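Supplementary Text 2. Reproducibility record for the structural model of the 371-residue chain.

All settings were left at their defaults, and a single model was retained for analysis rather than an ensemble. We include the record here because the model underlies the residue-level annotations in Supplementary Table 4.
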Amino acid sequence: MGDNWTLLLDGRQIRFGKNETPAKLMTVFREEDKYQHLEWARRVDEVNARGEATWDELDEFEGFNHRELFGYRTTVQTIMTRLKLMGFDPDRCRQEMIKDLEGFNEDDIEDGLLVLSRPTRERKQAVYHRVSAAEVLDMGIAAYLKRAEAFENWKRGDDRPKLAELQEICVSKLDFFFDDLAVDPRLFLVLILSSQDPKEVLQLDMSELLMAGYFDSSEAVSTEALQQLRDETASSGPIIVITEGKYDSRVLGRALRIVRPDIAGYFAFWNLEETKAAGGTDRVVANLRSFAAAGVMNRVIALVDNDAAGQAALKTLASPALPKNYIARNLPDLDYARLSNPRAFGPKPGRRQRPSLLRRVLLRPGLPHRP
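Retained model, structure tokens:
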């Protein structure tokens, strides 16, 4: 059977899953949205901690509505605001899904319309419907919500839900957005909610997952889900490289494409020329700290010169510690660079300061003294 979670819109089940915590859906909730029956949750935590199947201790809660035992809920208006902040604009998501529908059904398109049919037992010849991808999406979402509402009524004793043939076809065309694990569930969620009353409540019932020991009732599940998404983004997004100046960024970017063209596409060098941003060691430190404070999810590498200022910058960045996906390093110590600008380099840590190689050469006996 599995351990289920259920997503409900004003009591109507609009999605469910099992044997996992729905991390991406969890990101639309916050810990202040959590609800729980405190005594029930405490007992569940105790049973899970013992690792014993002694669920008879919870018999007294058998008559309780399981949807009210543990989960998260807030208004549609709040969820829509959060989705838009995460980049899930309803119009953009709608256009993206329409394009996907046209791509999946390109063999069934004639004159810009999808030709859809579904053979039935009642008749030998199928009836064909000519509709646009936009109509398929709109009709499919409407049918999806109608089916969810009818299903809840059916569970309460009403007639079993039934849709018209074209409605059934349209809603079946949306199965891809549920079945493919690579499709972000927030894409479809924002389209469902965009037509709903802002005062309606979206609820995520996670009582079965709590009973199965996926987490404790005291855990900040929504916060952990957001961190999990950040980790995924950090591993799949480009590695941002911050340098002191536009020349560093330009040369390092070109060098990487020459030396390692197989991995160059995974790096994004901060373009100081286009952004007109200020450069310098102090700006690298400030920008890296700003990225960390803003919670930028990508992996970030800060590169500073291997001079006294650059070494001081690394010490500054060492405390307080940067997030695990951030790193700061000096550019390599090159002899020709030291020769060309000896005064820029301070003494090596733990070593007695010595005159630079260039200065020692210039002060050799037989050569004129230079002040």
